[in-house]
UniProtKB/TrEMBL annotation:
One Pfam family this sequence matches: Amino_oxidase
Transmembrane segments: 7-24
Subcellular location: Cytoplasm
Name of this protein: Coproporphyrinogen III oxidase
Enzyme class per UniProt: oxidoreductase
UniProt organism field: Piscibacillus salipiscarius
Keywords: Cytoplasm, FAD, Flavoprotein, Heme biosynthesis, Membrane, Oxidoreductase, Transmembrane, Transmembrane helix
Enzyme Commission number(s) of this protein: 1.3.3.15
């Protein structure tokens, strides 16, 4: 008879939960133990229901194109819950005005000339600079480079600062002049290499893709993303879930590991460990190993968001669209805003408005240290530059996320490869997965968890 394997998963966010779910579902000779430091599962996923509103305090949706999140929802039998975002015009806030994102642009790269040339967002000089992409040819750089460097060379500073940077910051909340191109947008580098021009290459691939499916690109669950968490919780053996247990350190003992938990005398024994904590936590847990400290060189960014619920007549001139991001190098403190009731109508009761705005970016993270009232005032002041708010919100919900957005700086993938090689050498059967490593989005985290599950299963065969 095959011996049972003890797999301990550290962290009950989406990565840890996914690993626990697929391991339990797919293997009968594995004992899974999930250890979570706080009193709740879900990590960054946190849905709040209030007065008929569904408010996502963390992520609100996932990309449909990256299949692993949708697949997990389907595996959990939650297909009926899936809903796509309503599409609409998105804007850039610059100089106290909302400028429509030019039609036909992809992550800020202009694929249609007419709307780009007509755009009020750029000066003539800024527009002319973007044509450079068609003539400069491919870059000679072979190694990694920053996203900012790559796009500035091809499209000029204005398109980058006013359009590309705010859009990318909406995902990574970072400074694109430090962000690794290889770790975040390798596809753009490939397009440049194959077509010598981003615009030409992306146009060609756009023409080949099925234009029928150009409706919403994002999906969420009608009852909120927390439903994924709750469903996984319901499907796991309840004795495998350990809440309020903070792992302090892990020791290697011959071929197995001893997991120590704060305020507990009895450690947990494990054959395999899946670390899904942010890397700064993983570093502390394995602090005796020097190589673990070499991996990440950048502090994660802290952000906060404020959800504001209004009666419909509280805002007079709400623009037609789904939201906006804020141009860099301007005086605003908000970085993005979604008119949630338009993008996700199911979240908001009839006759109401739900707005969610973000603050916090590199260089302005101290905003998180302010009181809720101060953060609300900062957000309302910025929103009032473009919206006439004539009644106070029905309620406000401030959510703070300290050190929540990992920064994949230039060289990230090389450092990750070194980390994984060293782990295999010094700490066999210890795996790292989650937002610190191979993608911050929910589908990427889920994919990483599935990949570790596959590795563990393969070793057992
Ligand atoms: P986490 O969710 O951080 O889970 C790690 C878990 O480990 C936590 O539960 C934590 O309590 C636990 N832990 C920490 N230390 C210990 C310890 N010592 N012992 C035991 N447990 C410990 N992605 C999208 O795809 N779409 C979005 O719309 C989107 N929006 C976002 C909005 C915000 C505000 C944020 C912060 C992120 C957003 N993301 C979005 C990114 C995505 O939500 C996260 O990258 C993802 O949820 C991270 O999952 P994870 O399991 O890797 O980590």
């Amino acid at each position: 008879m095959q011996e049972r394997k003890r797999v301990v998963i550290i962290g009950g966010g989406i990565t840890g939960l996914t690993a626990a779910y697929y391991l339990t579902k797919q293997s009968h000779n594995i004992d899974v133990t999930l250890i979570e430091a706080t009193d709740r599962l879900g990590g960054k996923i946190d849905t709040l229901k209030k007065d008929g509103f569904t408010i996502e305090r963390g992520p609100d949706s996932f990309l449909e194109r990256k299949v692993d999140a949708k697949q997990l929802v389907q595996d959990l039998g939650l297909d009926d819950e899936l809903v796509r975002n309503a599409t609409g015009q998105a804007f850039i806030l610059s100089q106290d005005r909302l400028h429509p994102i030019p039609k036909g642009s992809k992550m800020g790269i202009p694929l249609e000339w007419k709307p780009f040339l007509r755009s009020s967002l750029f000066s003539i000089r800024g527009k002319v600079a973007a044509f450079n992409d068609l003539i400069i040819g491919r870059s000679e750089e072979n190694g990694d480079q920053s996203v900012g460097h790559f796009f500035r060379r091809r499209l000029g500073n204005q398109v980058v600062d006013r359009l590309i940077h705010p859009l990318i910051s909406g995902i990574y909340a970072g400074d694109i002049d430090y962000l690794s191109l290889n770790a975040t947008f390798p596809h753009f580098k490939e397009v440049e290499a194959n077509h010598k021009s981003l615009i030409k290459g992306l146009r060609e691939s756009d023409n080949q893709t099925n234009k029928k499916n150009q409706q919403g690109q994002f999906m969420t669950l009608k009852s909120g993303l927390q439903t994924i968490v709750n469903q996984i919780k319901a499907e796991l053996p309840q004795e495998s879930i350990n809440l309020n247990q903070r792992v302090t350190h892990i020791e290697k003992k011959n071929d197995s590991y001893t997991v120590h938990i704060e305020h507990q005398n009895e450690p947990i024994e494990a054959d395999d460990i899946i670390m899904t904590t942010p890397h700064r936590v993983t570093e502390k847990i394995f602090s005796q190993y020097d190589f673990i400290h070499d991996f990440s060189d950048a502090k994660s960014t802290s952000v906060a968001n404020v959800a504001l619920a209004f009666e419909k007549d509280a805002i007079d001139n709400l623009p037609h669209g789904t939201g906006f991001v804020v141009s860099r190098k301007e005086q605003y403190r908000i970085t993005a805003c979604t008119w949630t009731h338009k993008k996700w109508p199911h979240t908001t009761p009839e006759g109401h408005i739900l707005v969610r705005a973000y603050v916090g970016k590199p260089g302005d993270e101290e905003v998180l240290e302010k009181s809720n009232e101060e953060i609300e005032q900062i957000v309302l002041k910025d929103l009032q530059t473009i919206m006439e708010i004539n009644k106070p919100p029905l309620f406000k919900v401030v959510s703070r996320w300290h050190n929540a957005m990992p920064q994949y700086t230039v060289g990230h993938l090389d450092r990750l490869e070194t980390l994984e090689n060293k782990l295999a050498e010094h700490l066999p059967n210890v795996y790292v997965a989650g937002a610190s490593y191979r993608g911050v989005g929910l589908p990427d985290c889920i994919k990483q968890a599935k990949s570790v599950v596959q590795q563990i299963k393969q070793k057992m065969n």
